[in-house]
């Protein structure tokens, strides 16, 4: 069975760095892009960006370009989302998700991780 | 402000049909058949219900159907059931630098 399992909830202070993870299993990790989606409390999802774990080709929404870094380590079937300096406005649930079709970057997400809650507060 | 416009809430009685609209522009819904719909229950991850305007993924009930006309997409839920009570989000590919946009969501209440 296909699964995406994310790392646990984080509580951080403004200015701190953070890297959260998403481990894929049950499928060929390098055959599917992995995307990240932000959902702020009480709001709709926001598409942040997506990475091809096979060659690390990465695409960002303009809203998130320069604000976060998406990476992947195909040797351990894991994708990452990281911040170098967190802000209170980064407080949200973050989901990783897999597109429906192999080798497609721009596609509906049919497999989702359970989410990682990031809280940034002084 | 979300790029796609959805009604904040829609309600219906068990067994009835409801339709949720999702209005975009010629840069997204109007130009591409990459419209999808997600269901989200409280505290859970979104679940894909419809992709490519009207395709139902395996395992999704036939009571869910999607369509598009011009810049507006729609999700219809027929034979409304208690478990359909959830938030529903539309999404579309966009030629803008956002790449993908979502709606703000519609809360479906089963009366």
Task: Tag the structure with descriptive keywords.
heterodimer; A: 122 residues; mainly beta; seven-stranded mixed sheet; four-stranded antiparallel sheet; 0% helix; globular; B: 111 residues; six-stranded mixed sheet; three-stranded antiparallel sheet
The Rg value of chain B, from CA coordinates, equals 13 Å
**Assembly of the depicted chains:** heterodimer
Q: Calculate the mean pLDDT score of chain A and round it.
A: 97
First-residue to last-residue Cα separation of chain B: 29 Å
Radius of gyration of chain A: 14 Å
Structural class of chain B: mainly beta
Unreliable residue runs of chain A: none
DSSP strand tally of chain A: 11
Q: What kind of sheet is the major sheet of chain A? A: 7 strands, mixed
Q: What would you note in describing this structure?
A:
The complex is a heterodimer of chains A (122) and B (111). By secondary structure, chain A is mainly beta. Chain A is built from no helices and 11 strands. In chain A, the strands form 2 sheets. In chain A, strands 2, 4, 5, 6, 9, 10 and 11 form a 7-stranded mixed β-sheet that branches. In chain A, strands 1-3-8-7 form a 4-stranded antiparallel β-sheet, with no helix packed on it. In chain A, a hairpin with a 5-residue loop joins strand 4 (34-39) and strand 5 (45-51). The radius of gyration of chain A is 14 Å and the shape is globular. The relative contact order of chain A is 0.31. With 111 residues, chain B is mainly β. In chain B, 0% of the residues lie in helices and 43% in strands. Chain B is built from no helices and 9 strands. Chain B has strands spanning 9-12, 18-23, 35-40, 47-50, 64-69, 72-77, 86-93, 100-102, 106-110. In chain B, the strands form 2 sheets. In chain B, strands 1, 3, 4, 7, 8 and 9 form a 6-stranded mixed β-sheet that branches. Chain B has a 3-stranded antiparallel β-sheet with strand order 2-6-5, with no helix packed on it. The interface between A and B is medium-sized, with 21 and 24 residues.
């Amino acid at each position: 069975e296909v699964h995406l399992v994310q790392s646990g909830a984080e509580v951080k202070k403004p200015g701190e760095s953070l890297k959260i993870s998403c481990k894929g299993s049950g499928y060929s990790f390098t055959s599917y892009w992995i995307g990240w989606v932000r959902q702020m409390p009480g709001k709709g999802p926001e598409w942040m960006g997506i990475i091809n774990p096979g060659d690390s080709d990465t695409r960002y929404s303009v809203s998130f370009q320069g604000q976060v870094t998406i990476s992947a380590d195909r040797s351990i079937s894991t994708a990452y989302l990281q911040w170098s300096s967190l802000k209170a406005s980064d407080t949200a649930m973050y989901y990783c998700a897999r597109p429906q079709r192999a080798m497609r970057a721009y596609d509906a997400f049919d497999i989702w991780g359970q989410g990682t809650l990031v809280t940034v507060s002084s | 402000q979300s790029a796609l416009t959805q009604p904040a809430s829609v309600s219906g009685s068990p067994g009835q049909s409801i339709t949720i609209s999702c209005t975009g522009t010629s840069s997204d819904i109007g130009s591409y058949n990459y419209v999808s719909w997600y269901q989200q229950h409280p505290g859970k991850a979104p679940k894909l219900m419809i992709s490519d305007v009207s395709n139902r993924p395996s395992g999704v009930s036939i009571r869910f159907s999607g369509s598009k006309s011009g810049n507006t997409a729609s999700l219809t839920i027929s034979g409304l059931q208690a478990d359909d009570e959830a938030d529903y989000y539309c999404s579309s590919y966009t030629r803008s630098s956002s790449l993908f946009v979502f709606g703000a969501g519609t809360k479906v209440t089963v009366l």
